[in-house]
Amino acid sequence: SPSDQPYRTSFHFQVPKNWMNDPNGPMYYNGVYHFFYQHNPSGPLFHPRMYWGHSVSRDLINWTPLDPAFAPTEPFDINGCWSGSATILPGNKPVMLYTGLDTENCQVQNLAVPKDLSDPHLREWVKHTGNPIINVPDGIKHDDFRDPSTAWHADDGKWRIIVGSRREGTGMAFLYRSEDFVNWSMWESPLYEVAGSGIWECPDFFPVCVDSNNGVDTSVMNSRVKHVLKMAAFDCGRDYYLIGNYNPENEHFVPQSELTLGSLRYDYGKFYASKSFFDPVKNRRILMGWVNESDSDEDAHAKGWSGLQSFPRSIWLDQNQKQLVQWPIEEFKMLHENEVSFKNKSLEAGSLHEILGITASQADVNVSFKLTNLEEAEELDLSGIDPQVFCSEMDASKKGKFGPFGILALASHDLSEQTAISFRVYKNNGRYTVLMCSDQSRSSTRNGLDKTTYGAFVDIDPQQDEISLRTLIDHSIVESFGGGGKTCITARVYPTLAIGDEAHLFAFNYGTESVLISELSAWSVKKAHINIEETNGGAY
Ligand code: FRU
Q1: 324-328 vs 351-354, strand pairing mode
Q2: Is 297 a catalytic residue?
Q3: Which domains occur in the chain, in start order?
């Protein structure tokens, strides 16, 4: 019941029990979205002997659970079916590439196809008898070679994939090419590599349009696209991405900037091993990422489950072509109810305003702040500052001039529990810097939780743009989109008081300057049917 399981979610993808990590092979096929995931069916903690869990949906909101698509049964995957990706071949034929841990625990790449293309659920998958199709390259450690990407093809008719790896400390994405999807040869150099970055997991490589928010198929290549290379940097547990130009003739990918610890990330909180896919129904690219727990192994045993997926996000290139933008998929609105909204409310210095009339433990809130007397902003040069460290030191209780202002999610009535998502604005030489923080330090009265504070810059100019914040609150996950989706921060929290009907939501301004809420809308979110084995009329 909900009271024994206060941390289960209502609209975030989760499994009824046991462990889940990476999203695998998301795809659309004949009216149905498929989602696969790394799953340990025997317990709530990670175990290398992974299965591929499988669920299907018609709307990306409600999900019907199916039997695992892959179990570790063959010599080429007997020690685990690890992450991989789907490709839709010409003639509308889905195929899957995934990493197997073989009898020697070597990481090899395998191919599988649906047994029956006329089964709308594609329940059964057949592993290619010639597996593995790709072995560990010479000079690479047997357990440093995994997570094949979705394939793309170029005018020469050849398919390409990348596979995550490292040589010593140099993280890389090996490139393979094939004419028939079965015989693959390694390209002379990796698609990209970065010294000192450690192993890359779950690499993703896809085009984004320079002049439209629409997504395009992974094989689209023309002068109106740039390419995104995403890598899950294991050593720091972060999904970084680079935007650049790709030339399939010489296989050069030239990013606009270098990969550093301060590089662009999909999400500056908990979000890892994500994967994107092209949705031809709505011509968009959709991204989902694994959001792991912040509580302990003992807690996992008590709960019986671990791991969430982020809410599906549309992802596109910002107009300035310097970064990506993400936004919860529009289907979310089918779960909205009890809208409350208001306009033009001034939040005076030090004020708190409760948002009443919605279920604050299960909510969507979208607010825009307008700053009028910006010349009053504090002078501070934040260049070279790590925004996460800054947010940790300047927690939400520390007053500034402009900020912190934002919302308190999952707050108890006495505010002893609260997750503060907020902004601070500084000026330096006539230019403004907007900082976004997600402060988990007071999120629970419980100890033994990871309450790390997150922070990142939002690349907007508050002289022109209002500062917007959209936050999806779902019992133990708080997913925030700042600046219209330019900066995303996801956090896990485990309140003990602010649960169920006892949770409250506030807008706040602890700065000494007042700010204007130009508009606020909030909704209760209905419970989606996610992986519940009952005939509920939900997903189908
Ligand atoms: C990323 C990852 C992948 C691997 C899978 C195993 O979280 O380590 O590299 O394929 O998880 O579950």
Answers
A1: unpaired
A2: no
A3: 20-328 (2.115.10.20), 336-525 (2.60.120.560)
For the chain, what is the mean pLDDT?
Answer: 96
Q: Do residues 358 and 524 touch, judged by C-beta distance below 8 A? A: yes
Residue 537 pLDDT? 45
Q: Which residues line ligand 1 (CB under 6 A)?
A: 21-22, 38, 50, 82-83, 99, 146-147, 201-202, 232, 273
The whole-number pLDDT of residue 410 equals: 98
Cα 98 to ligand 1 centre (Å): 11
Instruction: Give the pLDDT confidence score for residue 260 in this predicted structure.
Output: 94
Q: Over the stretch 340-367, which tens digit does the pLDDT of each residue have? A: 999 999 999 999 999 999 999 999 999 9
Cite the beta strand spans of 318-361 per DSSP E: 324-328, 336-347, 351-354
Closest atom, ligand 1, to C-alpha of 202: 9
**Ligand 1 atom showing the smallest separation from residue 46 Cα:** 12
Structure tokens belonging to residue 405 = 């202002």
Catalytic annotation, pick one of 22, 77, 204, 295: 22
Residue 242's SS3 state is strand
Q: Residue of the nearest CA to atom 6 in ligand 1? A: 82
What is the rounded CA–CA span in Å between residue 490 and residue 291? 8
Q: What angle do CA 51, 55, 56 make, to 5 degrees?
A: 150
Q: How far is the CA of 101 from the centre of ligand 1 (A)?
A: 11
Confidence band (pLDDT; 50, 70, 90) for 538? very low
Q: How many angstroms is it from 537 CA to the middle of ligand 1?
A: 34
Whole-prediction pTM? 0.97
Q: Compute, in degrees rounded to 10, the torsion defined by CA atoms 327, 329, 335, 339.
A: 40
The ipTM of this complex is 0.99
Beta bridge partner(s), residue 269 = none
